[in-house]
Amino acid sequence: MGTSKQPRRYLSAPAELFVNRESNYGWRVPECPWCGGEHTHGAHSLDEDPRLALGHRVSHCATISEHPKPGDETPLAKAAEALNLDFDGYILVDDDPRQTAELMESLEVHEDDVFVGVSLKGAA
Ligand SMILES: [Zn+2]
Q: Using one digit for the tens of pLDDT, what is the confidence trace for 52-89?
């Protein structure tokens, strides 16, 4: 491993789970911490855990002018630099784990293929 690698620090972006038109999970960021706009990110197909798609993502505004850049004099850019935050995205965070679990559960009922983990322990 490297010697003294600094962790990369990002703003967190509260996100809510939804099902998109392609019948895949997606995460919606209603209010981007950088630009204030709404962004959506694809997650996984419905038989996978969408929470695996949380974590660092490049915000869709990263290339437009509303998105602060290092060296900008806007309050947000200055605050971010003071906190030593990286500018090229954010960390998607599940804003409502209970609602996420409920959505996943409600979809599972309509799935044709339900995968159930069973244990052979104690089956004899
Ligand atoms: Zn944005």
A: 999 999 998 888 877 888 888 988 889 889 999 988 89
73 located within any domain: yes
How many whole angstroms separate alpha carbon 72 and alpha carbon 49?
38
For residues 24 and 103, is the Cβ–Cβ distance under 8 A?
no
Read off the pTM.
Answer: 0.77
Task: Give yes or no for a contact between 93 and 15, defined as CB atoms under 8 angstroms apart.
Answer: yes
Distance 40 CA to ligand 1 centre (A): 10
CA–CA separation, 99 and 82 (whole Å): 34
Cα 56 to ligand 1 centre (Å): 14
* 90 alpha carbon – ligand 1 mean position (Å): 9
55/88 Cα distance (integer angstroms)? 13
Using alpha carbons only, how large is the chain's radius of gyration in Å? 19
Q: Which domain holds residue 55?
A: 11-99
Provide the domain count of the chain.
1
Please indicate, yes or no, if residue 113 is contained in any of the structural domains: no
CA of 44 to the centre of ligand 1 (A): 22
